Amino acid sequence: MNPTQISNRGFLFKFDDTNSNFSQETNVYVVIAKNKVFVADTHCGCDSMGYVKDFIKEKCPLHEIVVINTHYDWDHVFGNYAFKDKTIIAHQKTYQLLNKFWFKMFENNKKYTDGDCSKCLPNLLFKEELGFMQEDVRIFYTPGHTSDSISIYDKKDKVLFVADNLELPLPYLQDPHLDRYVKSLDKYEAINFDTLICSHNGVIDRSVIVMTKDYLLDIIEGVKPNIDNSLIEFHEANLKSIRS
To answer: In which domain, by residue range, is 142 found?
Structure first.
């Protein structure tokens, strides 16, 4: 499996039904920085991460591997065990949610997993922001899709990775605090980036931030969103999710 190079030091691994038991496109973002290589999310199991580990071994075998869990959803963390002896960064809420729901998520989704999914929790936690100054990498709290969502900014290459906080055609809402979600989108708009990446669509246009914000504000204000009729069922599912 060959990743797509999207910047001078950024590489995108695309997983789908051609190389995973989970058919939905899901991207893992790898940044080869000065002394460290950052792996954003670990997909659905250790087999998936075998591709990433082989790539790192070939490209930068002496770099320290740092893994980042962008949020607690199973399709972003079940490959953690492949890096059990490495630093795994996450928001403090992610640790709590994974510790509580890991085995339940596995039972509900085990047919979609790829190899060993042994429970492996993050071991470096933060609350608001974590910076790697020498590496030009910033990790910061951006609640939205979930209450524990975080984002990653590669300052050197001006790449912003937002995981599931942006998704086409609509975001999948799991956290009812939409006002916090909007503030996270405001943070994105204030960042000087050239490339925007989300987990399930890969590289996307900056306009998706505005589209997502408009959708959230319509829900907050009780206005019917201006969306295609084919998305009404999806929208109703979002409303049910945040009401529950």
So the answer is: 4-243
